[in-house]
């Protein structure tokens, strides 16, 4: 047994500059549209990572507990999904975060001496450093090769490292942070990046009582509100803007018909925000659309697989039937 932790991409000054330029472009484009919006991938700076870890511990945020239950209690079944024919593979996790759940699977695979390399991909370099540090002390025998950046750019690099078969994890209902049409395009793009026989294990939050869903994204302690408002603070700091955070309020809406749970920030007054040299006017009660957390039925999950070129092979749900981890094979 040995420890092998490799950080693939150390962000260089030029890369940081271009990431900042892209952030600026996306923010200005999002706030200049007829409907103002921001991209939720920018939530995850250091403070955003910390707040998201607090959200995962909120009593109302059932999403993590349900998937954690699956990873703790059905580890053997999950392991069978990824081990497949027993040949060596690369286990690529998209948006790995702190790998709270996948860690159970990783430990199980290491205990069973399964030959694999773990490749976590995340846009947050901060969370990847934390993850690498924790994994190297908690599962020292694990081979880790982490990639910092956007899902597909990094997936392309990850699949090219070796000729081994690939198993891709997309947990935590990350797919729900895309509108259904975008999720379908994402799944098709994912399929296009894989070879027939490669596998995906995807965590999807299921439709349930609408109040349970709404409360999960509008916790009493206001952590989700702070998580959303933190993006304005990040824009202030990184893009030299002057949002008055106290003049915005978090608002959450769940539509049981469409399964779309959406978060917004509402401007509490008429105000003009400056970002660098650009001015952005806000009317009182005008909203910024921040994030979608789309909910599905089991049937819709199977349709998503079929429509994107995957074959659903098996799935596990938690004891309440609120969350599913489904295994798809690239057809
Ligand atoms: C909701 S958290 C879930 C984390 C983890 N999968 C879990 O289940 O606990 C989303 C994670 O995906 C990452 N992320 C979001 N958008 C991304 C993107 N476009 N490319 C890469 N990572 C992304 C975030 O930095 C964050 O760590």
Automatic annotation (TrEMBL):
A GO MF label: methyltransferase activity
GO biological process, one term: methylation
All residue ranges annotated as the Histidine-specific methyltransferase SAM-dependent domain in the record: 23-328
NCBIfam families per record: egtD_ergothio
Keywords noted in UniProt: Methyltransferase, Transferase
Record's protein name: Dimethylhistidine N-methyltransferase
Taxonomic source organism: Filimonas zeae
InterPro entries named among the record's database cross-references: EgtD, EgtD_Methyltrsf_superfamily, MeTrfase_dom, MeTrfase_EgtD-like, SAM-dependent_MTases_sf
């Amino acid at each position: 047994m040995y420890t092998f932790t490799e950080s693939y991409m150390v962000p260089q000054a030029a890369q940081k500059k271009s990431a900042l330029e892209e952030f600026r472009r996306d923010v200005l484009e999002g706030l200049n549209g007829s409907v103002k919006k921001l991209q939720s991938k920018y939530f995850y700076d250091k403070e955003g990572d910390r707040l998201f870890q607090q959200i995962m511990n909120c009593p109302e945020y059932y999403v993590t507990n349900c998937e954690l239950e699956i990873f703790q209690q059905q580890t053997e079944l999950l392991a069978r999904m990824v081990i497949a024919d027993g040949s060596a593979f690369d286990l690529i996790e998209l948006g790995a975060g702190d790998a709270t759940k996948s860690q159970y699977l990783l430990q199980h695979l290491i205990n069973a001496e399964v030959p694999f390399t773990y490749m976590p991909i995340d846009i947050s370099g901060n969370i990847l450093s934390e993850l690498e540090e924790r994994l190297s002390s908690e599962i020292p025998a694990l081979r880790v090769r982490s990639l910092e950046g956007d899902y597909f750019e990094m997936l392309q690099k990850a699949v090219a490292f070796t000729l081994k078969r690939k198993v891709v994890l997309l947990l935590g209902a990350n797919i729900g942070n895309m509108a259904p049409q975008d999720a379908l395009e994402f799944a098709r793009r994912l399929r296009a990046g894989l070879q027939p026989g490669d596998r995906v294990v995807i965590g999807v939050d299921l439709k349930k009582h609408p109040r349970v869903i709404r409360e999960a994204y509008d916790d009493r302690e206001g952590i989700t509100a702070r998580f959303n408002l933190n993006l304005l603070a990040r824009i202030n700091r990184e893009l030299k803007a002057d949002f008055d955070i106290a003049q915005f309020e978090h608002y959450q809406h769940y539509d049981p018909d469409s399964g779309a749970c959406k978060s917004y920030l509402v401007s509490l007054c008429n105000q003009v925000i400056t970002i660098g040299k650009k001015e952005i006017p806000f009317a009182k009660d005008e909203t910024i659309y921040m994030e979608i957390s789309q909910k599905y039925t089991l049937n819709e999950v199977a349709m998503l697989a079929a429509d994107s070129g995957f074959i659903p092979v098996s799935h596990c749900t938690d004891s309440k039937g609120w969350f599913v981890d489904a295994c798809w094979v690239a057809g």
